Amino acid sequence: MSKPLPVAPHPAPHPTRHATPSLSPSLSPSISPPPSPPTSTPLTPFTSAWPYPRWIAHRGAGKLAPENTLAAFRVGASHGYRAFECDVKLSADGRPFLLHDDTLDRTTPQRGVAGELDWAQLAGLDAGSWHGRSFAGEPIPSLDAISRYCLRNGHALNIEIKSTAGSEFETGRVVAAAAATLWLGEAVPPLLSSFRPASLEGAREGAAQLPRALLLDALEPGWFDIAVRLGCVAVVTQFRLMDAGVIAQLHGQGLRALCYTVNDAADARRLLALGIDGLITDAVDRFSPAGGLID
Ligand code: G3P
Ligand code: MG
Predict the structure, then answer these.
(1) Which end of the chain offers a freer environment for a tag, N or C, measured as fewer CB atoms within 10 Å?
(2) Does the pLDDT of residue 230 top 60, yes or no?
(3) Over the stretch 167-193, which tens digit does the pLDDT of each residue have?
């Protein structure tokens, strides 16, 4: 049992040394948001304070409850989490919904590619029984349903655009446009992230004003230039890839540094000491946003 780790206050905004897309003026609670056109928002320097909590529950809180369901979000919230990551893709009829895998096989009784079914078919599936019988009948949520839950409870959302193979750009475009409508006028917009540059290009096409983050499972040559070219406000790496040099590079250019999926206290302590801006975790029962690490 390690000592609770005090959670440091969130770092001040980093200086901006080049023009990256704005997080939008609506991020500042003191500024009332203007109507947001879905496209063609002029790029302005990213000077807003980072509005997202440092601790982010992964897939809702997708270990203690079935991932990417409302039940998982409720479990995360019950442990004090106020920010959530989830995976979003499109149904065959273009509805954004939550699911991690391409197929339904692992988390529902149905087989096959989820994106080949219409929303009406997906909405009736049991996405809870695979986890445990107490979650039997838990449905796959639409992004609409999750946005209602998050907005009503004041929770922030990181939407990972998880396209079905072959629809990377279109998924990004549609998900971003839907998110812009759902969060219109809200103080804190969702953070849109993806491993796929094409999905982030689609997101920029669908709602340029929403903040974007590049996900990385490896630091391939050119990763930083890709993030800048895509107008990202943050980079989210696999946690072992994040070190002082990467954080300095990102912070030096006004971008934020986040990591997934941090489930070990020693890893969390290392990253917090480096000044990480966000930690995506499954361990919502062991890492407390309010009280530090409690395992
Ligand atoms: O968004 C970070 C993390 O969720 C990426 O990995 O496979 O859990 O979606 P995965
Ligand atoms: Mg994810």
Answers:
(1) N
(2) yes
(3) 999 999 999 999 999 999 999 999 999
Instruction: Please report the beta strands in the chain, taking only residues with DSSP state E, as ranges in sequence order.
Output: 55-57, 83-90, 96-98, 156-161, 191-194, 212-216, 234-238, 256-260, 278-281, 287-288, 292-293
Q: Is the CB of 68 under 6 A from ligand 1?
A: no
Task: Tell me how far CA of residue 226 lies from CA of 94, 187, 231, in angstroms.
Answer: 28, 28, 9
CATH homologous superfamily of 52-288 equals Phosphatidylinositol (PI) phosphodiesterase (3.20.20.190)
Nearest CA to ligand 1 atom 7: 100
In 3-state terms, what secondary structure has residue 264?
Answer: coil
pTM, two decimals, is: 0.86
Residues 158, 259: Cα–Cα separation, whole Å: 12
- Annotated catalytic residues are 58, 100
Residue with tokens 């219109």: 184
Contact 177, 204 (CB under 8 A): no
pLDDT at 7 over 90: no
- C-alpha 68/C-alpha 286 separation (Å) is 20
**Any atom of ligand 1 within 6 Å of the Cβ of 215:** yes
Q: Check pocket membership of 193 for ligand 1, CB cut-off 6 A.
A: yes
Domain map (residue ranges) of the chain: 52-288
When pLDDT is cut at 50, 70 and 90, the band that residue 295 belongs to is low
User: Band of the pLDDT at 293, cuts 50, 70, 90?
Assistant: low
- Residue 289 carries which DSSP code? T
Q: How far apart are CA 184 and CA 35, in angstroms?
A: 8
Q: What is the pLDDT of residue 80?
A: 96
pLDDT of 19 over the 70 cut? no
